[in-house]
Protein: ABC transporter B family member 26, chloroplastic
Amino acid sequence: MAIPSFNLCSSTKFLRFHSKPSLAGSNRKLPLVTAPTSFPSEFRLPSPLTRYRGFKFPIPRGNKQSELFEKFREVLPGGSWWNICDSENETVNSATSMWSALWRMWELLANDQWIVSVAFGFLIVAAASEITMPRVLAESIFSAQNLQSSAFLMKARLLAVLCFISGVSSGLRSGCFSIANTILIKRLREALYSALIFQNMPFFDREEVGGLTSRLGADCQRLSHVIANDVHLIARNVLQAIGAVINLLTLSWPLALSSLLICSVLATIFMVYGQYQKTAAKITQDVTACANMAVEETFSLIRTVRAYGTEVKEHGRYKQWLEKLANVNVRESVAYGFWTMSFSTLYRLTQIFAVLLGGMSIMTGNVSTEQLTKYVLYCEWLIYATWRIVDNISSLLQATGANEKVFQLLQLSPSDQFMSQGVKLQRLMGQIQFVDVSFHYPSRPAVPILENLHLSVQANEVIALVGPSGSGKTTLVHLLLRLYEPTNGQIYIDGFPLKDLDVRWLRENIGYVGQELELFHMDVKSNITYGCHREICQEEIENAARRAYAHEFISALPDGYQTIVHDSLLSGGQKQRIAIARAMLRYPAILILDEATSALDSESEHFVKGILQEFKNGKDAKRSVIVVAHRLSTIEAADRIIVMDGGRIVEMGNHKDLLLNKGLYSHLVKIQRNYLEA
Ligand SMILES: Nc1ncnc2c1ncn2[C@@H]1O[C@H](COP(=O)(O)OP(=O)(O)OP(=O)(O)O)[C@@H](O)[C@H]1O
Structure:
């Protein structure tokens, strides 16, 4: 009978992931639908429980019996029911140890590390006073029993002082750790955000937005608890346990050793359990991120979902992720149950030992009643401290296990573009040259997008890129913006290699209106001035809006330029015109207009034509303009039309010449005319 395995991988097909290239097959084509980088492809039991797997039980005869036996074997420690991780996951687990995670957080605290040091100071004081209490308590009770009033009063006073010291220092300890936690979560998010924002484009092609926001939100929150709760609780309980052991050893070493033996059995059980919990926590976090991505995708495409009536299907998709989550959590809970069972059994065992050994020692006169009372009290402390230590270590392991992805992301160095200081020219003229440029996207190395492309654009020239969908027009623009680096050849701006220029300076001098028709959730004015670093007056903003044919509709908005933009407020064409105004405000030497097909209604077409005309006969400084055009009628006025097909330039010239050529351009114009007339 096949042993059912708990496999989450099959469900990842519901989301679009890119896997990281495997070392074994680097030339392998990467499928669009695969597991996320750190997501387990198949879940199985982590070490050290894996050692149980090789053990073969004799299978009893008879079908029913053997089935029952097989089922029983599955739920035993090491059985397939517990399988929740794969070998890739194990490697990842060991890669980021708990210590390196703690060290990274310590570094993040930087100048505020003193708060943690002060907190530890209070922690030591609190722990020392707390651990002295059982001894003083027992002594005060027995001095009262022996009618030693002065000794009793002294002990009672000492007890009151200890209570006060422990109360105050515990409060200060918690306060300091909470402040450290607040600082840590802020720094963690800042560090993670800056690690992400400076990554190159292939990184964002690989990673899902939902996953990244989940890392920044819930994962960082969870990690910060490590400092606030676990670390200081572990330190506190370790100190208390040491104090308890010292006290126990001074009372009776056979009794002390018996308690220590039980505590070490507890610690061993915990090592196995803790490792399992760490893995489970990481998987829980990954599955939760996938569930969040599914929700985000559904809600952001809610109009499509509604139009196609796929609400139930979407619900089912989310439910599948929840089921995966529940599967892991059930195993986690059962493991927790086993752990609690072992803990309470062993805890009670210490009491039985105390009664048996202590009772016998009293009867033989080796131990006094007072000593036995102190022993029982310290035994309670030790076992309680051991429980808290293992519990908090478990939670610490969970937090670090679940957030390994956060640490991996934190280690990413910024894209080279931001690291190197390039050349800044005195003035950008806008001459562009592509020399023998080839390119493929890093995620699809086997698919060439541009091949040995040569193109030269003169300063102040207006050129239009046309061609069938997927011919590489937008890719060419992306290379010019240095969003990607060519795999072969060189791009020159005013005769300087593009990669030698300062990328920030270059982008400040380029106006780009992309296909993404999304504006920022802020007012219209801020959307227009976005990314412009100089002082800008209202008149200038309105001027740019007028030239982008946007002033009229902006003025008609409820709060004019102060109107907050939200998703359904503006049409695609209106958003595009605001984006054009933004580009115009920068007075760029190079303007790139990548038309979004969806936004191009006949009204937009009229505006784009007007804008192009303005660039040709502009009143202000002229500039080089590259228009990626879908509506061919918009670019008839361009100085030159570049026709692309399959990543190559197949035709070049002005509208009239190209029509006479009877090549791809005239064919495309004909198709479009027929379509519009139909
Ligand atoms: N980030 C990416 N990762 C992998 N492949 C991509 C990426 N972006 C585009 N491609 C692929 O590159 C090819 C060229 O795309 P590109 O967007 O440059 O074409 P286009 O001519 O601008 O198309 P359209 O006119 O439809 O906008 C397409 O096959 C596309 O699937």
User: Anything to note?
Assistant: Residues 1-60, 86-95 have pLDDT under 50 and may be disordered. The longest helix spans residues 311-364. Residues 98 and 400 are 6 Å apart (CA to CA). The two ends are 63 Å apart (CA to CA).
